[in-house]
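[09:14] KT: can someone run the structure on this one? pasting the chain below
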Amino acid sequence: MSYHLQTRGPAYRWWRPLLGAAVLVAVGFALLATFSAVTAAISQSTDQRWEMVLSFGAIAVTLPAVFAAARFGEARKPGTLSSVDGRLRWRWLTECTGWAVAAFALAAAVDLALGARWDGFPGLSTYLSIVALTLLLVPFQAAAEEYVFRGWLVQAFGAWFRTPWPGAVLSSAAFVATHGYTSAPILAELFVFAMILCWLTVRTGGLEAAIGLHAVNNIATMVLAGGAPIPDQSTVTATWGDAVLIAAPSILYAGIADLRYRKRTARPAPVPPPG
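[09:31] RB: done, structure tokens below
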């Protein structure tokens, strides 16, 4: 069964995604409220690193809510959110992450060749601590977003549509709406990025390729920012040319991931009988 149709199991009912949405919201808010209470009790710091914990951690802790929505709202195995194999395919995720690193390293090299530079470097020790926090938090933050937008939402719409594309377009629009950008080129690039993630998910039958790209994209953004404070998204602007350059490594990665997946799943040609 195709990835976007995973809700159509033995317990399928048209209304189950609505119940799943209620479970997702209720559990998600409970987890977020608990996280907020704990972090408020620990510190009131305005340090860049604490801001990272708050912003990335708040998203990461909601990941169990998606699994609860599948289990208790839709009466299906949470593993069906990960892939058509009913589990996260770790070897494929590892390979995808490697290709994403290669694509973004190439993009960074091009940026440096064009004269890109860091502004406001905070010092080596602070920068290394920011990198460490990024590597610790961002994979979970990116995975949580993928399980919600490319996983649960795309599959929820799959309960009502046989084609994945209504779910892909609507989940991509929802993904863009959760960000605070107001610059048209950035909004367009973010929508293209979300659609690439949807396409990879449907094409490869799981979230691994999308998680790899999303995590590396966010890590690269933080690491290459040189430790600069997280900006107010509403103040970030870009030209249409910038948007094309930002989208380039994701498009390159999508092509590589597609080729690699087709190679992995290609069946060997039958050997003709002798004579």
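[09:33] KT: thanks! Residues 124-158 form the longest helix (35 residues).
[09:34] RB: yep, looked fine to me
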